Predict the 3D structure of the following.
Amino acid sequence: MRILVSTLLLSCLAVAPWPAGAAPCLVVTLTGTQGGPSSFNGLAGAGTLVRFGDDADDCSTVRLQFDAGRGTTMRLGQLGITPGRLDAVFLTHMHSDHVDGFADLLQMRWHFEYRRPKLDVVCSADAMVPGFAISCRQLVAHVADAYVKSGEIAQRVTEDRDRPPGGPADVVRVVTFEPRDEAEQVWSLGDVKVMAIRSTHIGGHASYRVDTPAGSVVIGGDAGNDAAAPPRRSSTSEQVEKLAQGAAIIVHSAIHPAMGPDKGSKMPRAIYFRQSTASDLGAMAERAGAKHLMLTHLIPPLGAVRQGPWDVPGGPLAEADYRKAAEEGGFAGNVVVGTDLVSVRLPAR
Ligand SMILES: [Zn+2]
């Protein structure tokens, strides 16, 4: 009887996934908007939270975190979300500004929420570059080595013998994929599907797209064009543009053209040219048909006189400067100049 009831329930769910009156919804929140490894004005490091659900659960059936820079758990905490409530973490690449908060996140999950299912961590397979490998798998395996070596993990296990003895790496299931020039599905849960595509920044960099019944969002990460410097059509990635076709929201790292080598910032050309400019992102978002362009990982941050060691020529930039750049690129939709915890919801309330 119980089996019959649950079978009936399941088949009802398959026909009508949303309770009467509940509409599917998607919320995209920037958990950190700092560009690069610097620390400025309390901004958290790069990260984007994607939530999907319906009106009844505040769009929170599925929670996905993309990158986990410095302070990610603090921003999630402001939203009332503990690491144990995440269904998966996706990493765009192995730069510290995108994973500084990852050990903290896993440590908390291991410490307080180890009884929850293992956390899927989705990222590129090892990328071999001349002389070394860039390895997400190694990052996860060694994510809490300092706490293991210091004795903390063993000591915490004496406080709670049920904690997995290997430490935070024990609460993770790593899912790797080979990033390709065509989008491939790398993860799914119910109605939520995540695709990935290869993009250029450092070896193993990938960009993601989340498709849900409420709409789609693309997380570009730090993607830039495959051509490392001009002449080229755009500083943006052609693969990301392909991935973004028809997506309502694009979240992307942005550099302001004010930092360009012709403007006197002294930022090394290679570092400037490997990022997508706010104006080229505006052009790309328009070509892709996006409704919302969320600029994040801002280089330079709003109000900063310096980006790391490099001056911001002409003085600090304001929100209007990034917006203007994106609009001058041709974007007619909604430009969101990233600040920590800013969100876009689909459908809008
Ligand atoms: Zn970065």
User: Anything to note?
Assistant: The chain has one domain: 25-346. The pocket of zinc ion is lined by residues 36, 46, 95, 97-98, 222, 297 (CB under 6 Å).
